[in-house]
Design a protein that fits this description.
- The protein has six helices and ten strands.
- Helices cover about 30% and strands about 15% of the residues.
- The strands form two sheets. An eight-stranded mixed sheet has the order 1-2-4-3-7-10-8-9, sandwiched between helices. A two-stranded antiparallel sheet has the order 5-6.
- The chain is globular and about 50 Å long.
- The chain has about 250 residues and is α/β, with parallel strands linked by helices.
Amino acid sequence: MTHPSYEIVGAERDPAWIVLCDHASNRVPPEISGGDLGLGPEDMNRHIAWDVGARGAALALADTLSAPMIASRFSRLVIDPNRGEDDPTLLMKLYDGSIIPGNRHADAAEKERRLALCHRPYHDALTRLIDGAVAAGAAPRLISLHSFTPQLRGRPRRPWEIGLLWDRDDRLFRPLYERLQREPDLTVGDNEPYSGRLTGDTMWRHGTARALPHLLIEIRNDLIRTDAEQVRWGRALGRWLLEAMDEAPEGA
């Protein structure tokens, strides 16, 4: 299923797991500044515009879990689906050293227009996926897949290959974190390189507020530049998640 603001792959699959990719695309819809925010290809292809490699890894993860996957079809610079509607970083005008010309004069009315065009349809579709799973008797486990840049401008290099972001609910975090400790070549961040404690974000809205098990997983984007790397990491994450759940105490 494809909509201007989102896509759903594998809608017919068992929704015991649901995979999300909030920042899957660097697309600027034609309704927004004529499809051009005024940034060159170099900026539109780096992490400020989307999560590089995340969509391909999310597809492979969903395949491994036999799960549906929902992904955005608009750049986070248009409006960030992983922020609450009242978050000050919802519509960025400056990001990691780059000014976004197409957002420079965006006012409250323009923000509302972008919410209606992109942000709300994405979240409404995710709500319908979850509601359908719950109606069928499932309590879906939500996995949100993101990627992060190895280094922000002027900041130290980040040492982690994977980051696990969580808030109050550790039902998925704890088993997976313990499973990943057995991987000798992985440095795993606990709420790194960002904190998962962000009120109003996607995991808070669809996981915390609904008491569903959930976890946001970050992969360093230099590891998933190619299609083959995305498939390899997505499949590995799926295996690790399934193994972690098999080993977890009852109720996880």
